[in-house]
């Protein structure tokens, strides 16, 4: 089975590819560039094309399929209608699939389920990354506030942190909010 | 008053303006409807989100709503269109070199004369083994239908003498720049972007091909519309108000600024203002040219979903997809357009409501009074450039007579 993965995000494409390792008898092709996409698809002749839902090339690809159907290479959008729940799950995950007619439903389902799992995994990774970036920014802000307190009050680092912490507890705020207030105040006073 | 929320899918095009402005100016809120928007760059994505419930309604190519209902290209799913988002608003842009050869850059061409010159050019290029290539936004788009209508009436066979391929609107300028295409039929602001980047020259407005041609519709799944009927009718009233605001010259600059935002079109406000004011710059550095009704979003009951418009679109699918005419498909196509819902939404507003649901398209060549439920409205010229008329009750004989 030839599987083409079309995704402008190479990271996501390779995460899906990784997931496909568990399938037997598959050849996987990854296409990340908009330029020359149809020529590559033509060359590969895939049995199934997995493409991210919002990919800008989807209309171009669908037109290609419509024309190939005229050339007696029928291609169905997604799976058959009875698989509506599977299609809905794939749309929710953000992946669409084009299947060459003749590939049986029982071969498509595991592939589609897998693609959905990998897409969801990628989405989780991304949100983890955003969270991690947020945490890093918080830590930098707290460090900055500590340095301001250490300089202006001549206190040690643990003492500066202790003050931030006490203020946060007494005002029911997060330490990072207090740190932000300290940094902003220092900037306003031209003290920094 | 209706109460509820609606999520609307759209592509970044100027003619997504009515739902966006209904939201931004508080007209929807006045109707008790809270709108939110989902932007995509492919029609396939807009359609998927609509069919699988990520959105309640969508800014959609009118022919695509019909094709989806008929099951062309994917399993059939019934869509309905209770509101036409606008008429025309698209342009034909040619690569600069080609435009210099067969048109007068800086002026709109005469479609008959330009068609004749293009025919010669197309024949030369075909003989040289390099057919002219045109980009359209989608197989089931009025862009494709109107471009083909014009080519065929000019003696150019769209599937034999030239090539027509799909190019997403935001990439049309790139495709012209790289020589991938020699011309395109696309909506705004993407023609203007070609001019701004000096890679193309606008030679025709689609309004020159069919003066009152149907463009985008508000599409919904039929079942979803039944569930959301009150807020859908509220949205229709809000979009009529938005249209009135949109066509008022006082508001051109403000509305261009709103549509230009990153969350909407994410495009140059100056280019958007050209389309809104019907004053496009046709070739780089030239003065704007006023073409009244380049876009037609409000007057003369422009948003009324005439069943005859749906019937014309079906006739063009039969024509170009080489389907055979099927009277039950024709009926299904007509039923996509829902004037009954439009009427119901506006019945107490005093807005113009045509007395009929269908008309002979292209038959109005001068100002004509048509009956409305309250009195009459005046429809101005609605003609096709070749003078043909379309009788929705006689689609087969219409198709037989076409080139």
From TrEMBL, chain A:
Gene Ontology molecular function terms on file: RNA binding
Residues found modified as 4-aspartylphosphate: 52
GO biological process: phosphorelay signal transduction system
Gene3D superfamilies assigned to the protein according to its UniProt record, in alphabetical order: 3.40.50.2300, Winged helix-like DNA-binding domain superfamily/Winged helix DNA-binding domain
Key words of the record: Phosphoprotein
InterPro entries documented for this protein: ANTAR, CheY-like_superfamily, Sig_transdc_resp-reg_antiterm, Sig_transdc_resp-reg_receiver, WH-like_DNA-bd_sf
Domain ANTAR residue range list: 122-183
Name by which UniProt lists this protein: ANTAR domain-containing protein
Residue intervals of the Response regulatory domain: 2-116
From TrEMBL, chain B:
Entry keyword Transmembrane helix: no
InterPro entries referenced in this protein's UniProt entry, alphabetically: NrtA/CpmA_ABC-bd_dom
Keywords noted in UniProt: Cell inner membrane, Cell membrane, Membrane, Transport
Pfam families recorded: NMT1_2
Residue ranges crossing the lipid bilayer per the database entry: none
GO cellular-component term (any): endomembrane system
Identification of the protein by name: Nitrate transporter
Lineage: Bacteria, Pseudomonadati, Pseudomonadota, Alphaproteobacteria, Sphingomonadales
